[in-house]
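Take a minute with the sequence and fold tokens given here and flag any structure token that looks odd. Thanks in advance.
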Amino acid sequence: MIRNVVGLVTGGASGLGKATVEQLIKNGARVVAFDLPSSDGAEVEAALGENCLFYPGDVRSTEDVMGAIEAGKNKFGAGLNAAVNCAGIGIAMKTYNINKDRIHPLEEFQRVVDVNLSGTFNIMRCVTQHMANNEPCSERNERGVIINTASIAAYDGQIGQAAYSASKGGIVAMTLPVARELSQYNIRVNTIAPGLFETPLLGGLPDKVKNHLANQVPFPSRLGNPLEYGQLVLSIIENQMLNGEVIRLDGAIRMQP
């Protein structure tokens, strides 16, 4: 069980984010589930009870992020000391499609990078301002922990994933420098790079396609369960020596082109 954890989880109304909110609360934390106004956040809050607060907003908005942090402090009466970045989007688009004589729209590339990479950094910088002023935990002398979500696409990007891979590769690349920087405040920074998981991003695919993808995973030969992502989040929070690290959670898959 984790104690005295007040967390902020972006993308907290579905997929990996929702599973993380559930796991944290199940293990004794209080959590702000931060997601878009159009999400199912209100239903998540109702299902999880008084230790969950849904706050609608956009990770790219500093005003929204600061509002979520303040709302959590007011609701739970304690400072935020954990943040998990799960919000993200993806597209499949070639740099150039010769059959359609179509180039990748620059605005689509920028949109993915803006949400996935800039949005993650926006959360990090905002929560750091808050965490750095926390009183260190008496048992661990720690002020906070930040956990980001990259993807194996950062390493094994497939055809059509230029934007997505670039955005997730940026998250991988900034993990160590930000961890080094925030160490002076006793704040840890880690990143999880998930493989193929049963999330809304894959949920719309036909079963035949999902089975094909699952069979590519060496072991276990299946799609990941979002709860397994949430379990790793718990482990990172509990294990203080994990810092500046990117952890692949992928069943040893290496994606083909």
